[in-house]
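BUG: 3D viewer hangs when loading the predicted structure for this chain

Environment: internal workstation, default settings.
Expected: structure renders.
Actual: progress bar stalls at 90%.

Input used:
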Amino acid sequence: MRLGYLFAALFCFFSVQAQGADSGDNPIVQKIRYPVALGSLYPEKAKDLKHTVKELLVSADRHFRPDGKIPKALIVPSSSIFLSGRVTAAGYAYLKRVRPFLKRVVILYAPMNKSYFGMVVPEAKFWEMPDRRFEIDTATAERLSQIPGITRDDAPHASEYGAEVQLPFISALFPPEVKILPVLVGDASVLQVSDLIDAVWGGPETVVIVVSQLNDAKTYEDVLERADYVIKRLEKKEYQSLNKRHLTGLLPVKGLLHYASEHDGEVKILARGTSADEFAPSKKVSGYLAAGVYETELSEEERKEKLEKLLQENQEDLLRIAAHSILSGFKRGRPLYVRESRYADDLSKKGAVFVSLYYNGMLRGSVGSSEPTRSIIRDVSENAYAAAFQDFRFAPLGEDEIKDAEISISLLTPKVPLKFESEEDLLKKMRPNRDGFVLRERENKALFLPSVWDTFSTPKEFLMHLKRKAGLPADYWSSTLKMYRFEVIDINSGDLPDPKSIWEARKR
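Structure tokens produced before the viewer hung:
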């Protein structure tokens, strides 16, 4: 059996078979991809493979107790089942309860052997494994191939094993009618990967699997240190801080974290381990993580109310941080360094903040973030400094004037993607005088705050100018255009009992 599969892998990765006829009595040609990691990364015999995976899943149930909320996406290792199987099984064990609803599993993985342009989905109808023939979700593959940067091609998948090593776990957990869609992520941008995830995300009928693991380290201690760093970045969705030294399959991970950031998702570490846990340490030690990405359970209104409460309860602290960051600019030429541990835990979560300065009722500086890339506290500090010293639209306030200025902090609520069928449909869903919007068309992007409704009173006018700001024609339209709405929560130093108190040292 092993020789047969190896022969197929080396000389004929894809077999062409006639299976039935279409309405015109022409043969339907269906391609089959055969396994390439058989007997090396997992057992070659179906019986042994099933037994191994079953034991791993039973152990995961016993040691990790995967109850509670079901993740919508997983990050799992791509290594040998004999080395990383325990960690991989722990991740998949959390998906057991999605079984009644599941129709497809989308697997994103990066190439190990070669580089490829863009992203590639299979043309094949089936992927063969010792214990099961998996059907490819060809309808979704065809739909994705219409997006620029995504092609259908079997050849790049032929020698890559990243998706293949996930199939024994999918086979053990889900019924035969569940389809798969492997996506090879080559040379693409984080936004492109995030957009692909958005295109397949769906509801409980879909699970997204991202294949990645820690890069090898020289010692056990080194891999543990690397794991600690990566875990912190994953939990905070700080994909910009991750690079190829940390992870294999880096780009799929970054795309997933970007998507989670944009949709207020939560990342939790489910399991961790190393190759040294299974065998004696060698010259290299590999690290493994399993992480789940969870959709928020709060409604749009509940999330807004939570943020409003957070800002009101910490109003004075946030305004004081902004004020003292400006004072730090005068004294040291840099923003205030803020120790997040001194403040409420929720202020350490990522947020997008605008800080504006007013003097005698006139705007004298305003700088903000359109994306939640750092903690709320750090965003306040950095943007307050930038509003005072780096907004070149205005003459900077002098040190003798600054304490008479009013500080306004605006926190953007998490962006909500709008679903629409046409421009007319989109215009109907825009809420004047309430919502701000982010428009994105591939790499083109623009943001308007809700205050822009004072200038452009109708949704059509608002949208036309938003397109122009993104570098697009006013009459531009595309099926790939994306719109996200958000609201703004404001706090102002003028609303404090003593507005000038924020410029003084904090009393403890």
